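Example record used in the benchmark description.
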Amino acid sequence: MSVVCYKGEEETRRLGLDKFTVLSYNDYKLGILTDRGDIPMLPSVEALVEQFRREGRKITPQRRAIFEALDRDDSHPTAEEIYQRVRSVMPDISRTTVYNTLHDLVAVGALMEVEDLSEGGTRYDTNTSQHHHLFCLDCHTLVDIDRDFQGLELPPGETAGYQIVRRQVTFYGHCPICQENQGG
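Model output (structure tokens):
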């Protein structure tokens, strides 16, 4: 993964940012280059519909709208952010429907929860592979790191009897845009 901070359309073309996940702040953009080809992302809307049907789960217009709001989204949104997106196209949707659908997506393995990193609450990750994160303490941007940290295991005597099922490392810091806004 590469992280690039840039400004302007000329640099957009020069850097080939069609390969980037792009986060914007004022006139500046943060381009995060990732090769997403082998990363298990959220299945397509139609694949989710079929998966839910196979498992006997109802498909409603609200659920389909939630699937569409998450399609190709690697911004790690909160339930509230997803609710606001869907509400903009479906004003009568309830928060309960959004929370229940997110719970179901996690249950079928299509989403992962990223535990509360700030006051924003649980965030949802469409990348369901084992990976880690960078978290900006200022703007709360959360970025995937597709790197394994060799030897990141707890010795059996230190697990306090827990059966470890996954691990996640989060690095906390200040993203390039926030560093620049703070003067350095």
